[in-house]
Structures are given as C-alpha cells and as structure tokens.
Write a structure and sequence with these properties.
Number of strands: 8
Structural class: alpha+beta
CATH class: Alpha Beta
CATH architecture: 3-Layer(aba) Sandwich
Radius of gyration: 17 Å
Helix content: 40-55%
Order of helices and strands: HEEHEEHHEEHEEH
CATH topology: Chemotaxis protein chec
C-alpha cells in the first residue's frame, strides 16, 4: 500500500501530538529536558522491519514494554530501551543505586508502569484528536534481542506494518529510548478517514 506525501504528513502530525504528550509526562517524572526526534513513518514488510530494527539497535538485548490496542484501528505500541538506559531510568525513578541487587527486581514493575503510562498517553492523545475510542490490552514486559522480539509478535492479516518511531534522549541521565507504533495495514483506511474528518 502506498501513501501520498500529504497522508504521511498527516500521520506524522498526529503521532507528533501523541508522542509530545508522552514526552511531557516523562519530563515531569524525571525533571530533565528531553530531546525528541520523530523520523519518517515507513510501511515495511516484516523482513524489512527486522532489518531496520537491527540496524538501529544491534543484536544486544533490549528492555521493552508492549501494549496492544483495538477499536476503529488496531496495532500495538512499544516503549523500548537499551539495557543500560533501562537500568538508568529505573535507578532514577526508584532511588536505588544501579549496583543494588534490588534494582533488577524493581525493573519489570517500574518499566511496565512507565510504559503503560507513556503508551496510554500516546494512544489516548491520538484517540482524542481523532474522536475514536480505543481499547487497550494488558501491557507486558520483555527483555530480548530484536530478532526474538519480532519473532514473537503476533502475525496480522497482512504482512506489512506502518512503523512510526520516536527517539528520545535525556542527556543528563544517559537515558535513551524509542516509542514505536505499529498499525496493522488493514487499519490504514480507517486511520486516514479519521484524520481527514478532523482536518
């Protein structure tokens, strides 16, 4: 499926609003300025997606919170951190030293809570702008490499996904991460119609 330049711009603007809302929440938690970058949105096959993700993140294990959404359009959203950034974030939020043996046990619950809040901020903002109700699945936490993470993703009716990545960086805390939105291609038409209706 091919999108026009105007359709891609409209999707980027919509995602900018949602991700900006999430960045504001993260800034409030951390009290440090956040650099935010939203590259181009892309329609990729599963094989292309894996290649792009490996180029960006390598083969090292990643910390990931994923939350599926359903309603007028379907897909999933992920909050993803390199392992060291995940530890830095948990340390800042819990007050535990990075060398503390308790940090690992706090990691899953802390990152799941952060991921749930940020992803709900992104998707809630998008749903509000488009006046669409979305239902959310229970978020879950994983630590694996890119190939394993993508292999575990549920197959959709179509082999293509819309990838909308947003990279954020907190220089003072050495925290970097990505918010990734995957829309099932079958949802594109509804998504674009909803965007057109509010434009």
């Amino acid at each position: 499926m091919l999108l026009t330049a105007d359709e891609i711009d409209a999707i980027k603007e919509l995602i900018n609003i949602g991700v900006g809302q999430a960045a504001a929440m993260l800034n409030e938690m951390l009290q440090f300025p956040i650099e935010l970058q939203i590259p181009e949105v892309d329609i990729l096959s599963r094989a292309e997606l894996q290649e792009v993700m490996i180029q960006r993140f390598g083969l090292e294990p990643l910390s990931l919170v994923e939350l599926g959404f359903n309603g007028a359009f379907c897909g999933s959203a992920q909050l993803l951190f390199p392992t060291e950034s995940a530890l830095n974030l948990v340390s800042v939020l819990t007050g535990e030293d990075k060398t503390s043996p308790d940090l690992d046990s706090l990691k899953t619950s802390t990152l799941t809570e952060v991921g749930n809040m940020l992803i709900n901020g992104v998707m809630g903002s998008i749903g509000n702008v488009l006046d669409q109700n979305l239902e959310y699945e229970v978020p879950y936490y994983l630590e694996e490499g890119v190939a394993e993470l993508l292999r575990e993703k549920q197959p959709t009716d179509c082999n293509d996904v819309l990838l909308a990545p947003a990279h954020f960086y907190v220089k003072e805390l050495e925290i970097q991460g990505d918010i990734l939105l995957f829309f099932d291609v079958g949802s594109f038409k509804v998504l674009l119609q909803a965007i057109a209706a509010v434009s």
